[in-house]
Amino acid sequence: MSKKFHIFSDESNHDKSITNKGDNINIDNKGLSREYVRSFLIIDTSCLNCVRDEVENLEKRYFSCQGSEPKGKNLFKLSEKVGLKNLSDGAANYFFKLLDIIDKYDIKIFLVIFNKFEYVINKSVEIDLNRLSKKIKCTLEEDKEIKYSFAKYFENHYSNRLCNALFKEKDSQTNYRIKKAIHDMNKGLKNHKLKDYEYIVGKNLYSLIDDGIVSFNTKGSYKWDYTFESKVFLDLMNQDDNRKITISFDKGTRVSAVFKEQLISRNIENIEVTEDIESKEDIFIRFSDYFATFFGKLSRSYSNSFKLKDFETGKKNYSTVESIPQSWFALDETQFYLAKRIGELINKGSVILLHGILADTPIGLKNYFQFISDFKEFSDYQAVDNVKLSQLNNQRLSETWNTSYSKQGIFFSPYDATYGALSENFGKS
Question: Which residue(s) pair with 249 in the sheet?
């Protein structure tokens, strides 16, 4: 007999279109994010009533004084670049109890954390793998390293000149304009010792365009099409055809329509999509929203920590190697046990982070929570100062980063996780 599951899905950090107006990419505006997040909450249908009762009781205890719909965005105050540091005890306890429900009923949470610069690259870059294989005398079947490097280099160093070229309908001068923008950006890296590897990456990206291996099919803006999150989730779900699955999406986007198209194209018959549901009318959509919002805001905080440009002064800081601030480790006892609990559920496979090629943020978050979960008690954690905690986390991150990207066919030095993939060893890995 087939097991039956119901999936509930919501999103956060969603921009219906990625644009450049007034020499400013909208995803870097204050309050917006470089990462799109969609949660998929998978519940055995035999547990639905029990889960509903527990979440309803939890909402009543925490939101009884509010007349409006309970919303994660109002509860989880995760701003700036400090991670969990500003999360209140009430919000931390609320999320901890949600995690208890996840664990108690063997619920799975899949979180798709997708970088928006990668989305722009996927929509604009065309790569001639045959020509590239001839150039490096090595047969390549995938273009992941190239797309990773363009996405990361552009994310870190984009200029007004690049934006004006990247967010403009393609014409005969498009490739020339982007090539010149890369040349100008690279001049700014040349005299900074800590950016030596990224300077090499920039030279290689320039050469790829100059040699006709990479070309750009740019657009005035890049409308979000919901294909990636649908595809990456269905790739997992399709591994077990012996389940009957019903999925419900939050109302307000085209994701359910795209999801249905994917089901038809793959001839998948064991998954049914319901009508979209308003979160204020359905407690399970709200349950999913809590996770999308929490990890959406935390992803924004993590990503903001690595921005080289200070958007208030307009200046870039090339004098240091990027790492999350020590404030990420200045946790009180409640915040520590919340982070530890998340790490434990990641280790258990209850919380799963899915991502694309440029996965620095989800890999970093996973590493952070797993690092904290290694401490048995808060007293053990407190015994280590924040500087040392930051150093230990970064050491662990280098190994995690190398392992995670190697699985995708993207190779780095195991001793340096701060530069792009197209180094001097490109094609030799």
Answer: 9
Tens of pLDDT, residue by residue over 114-157, are 999 999 999 999 999 889 888 777 777 778 888 998 999 999 88
Query: Do 306 and 365 touch, CB atoms closer than 8 A?
Result: no
Q: What are the strands, taking DSSP E only, across 217-361?
A: 222-223, 243-249, 271-273, 351-355
Q: Residue 284: CB partners within 8 Å, gap ≥ 6?
A: 6, 8, 41, 43, 48, 51, 52, 55, 248
Query: 314-326 pLDDT, tens per residue?
Result: 666 665 556 778 8
Long-range contact pairs involving 406-412 (C-beta distance under 8 Å, separation at least 24): 408/144, 408/357, 408/359, 409/142, 409/144, 409/145, 410/144, 410/145, 410/148, 410/357, 411/145
- The residue assigned the tokens 């996965």 is 359
Q: Enumerate the β-bridge partners of residue 114.
A: 36
User: How far apart are alpha carbons 84 and 145 in whole angstroms?
Assistant: 32
Residue 368 and residue 393 in contact, taking contact as beta carbons nearer than 8 Å: yes
Are β-strands 351-355 and 243-249 bridged in parallel, bridged antiparallel, or unpaired? Answer: unpaired
CA atoms within 13 Å, Cβ hemisphere of 385: 2
Q: How many other CB atoms sit within 10 Å of the CB of residue 149?
A: 26
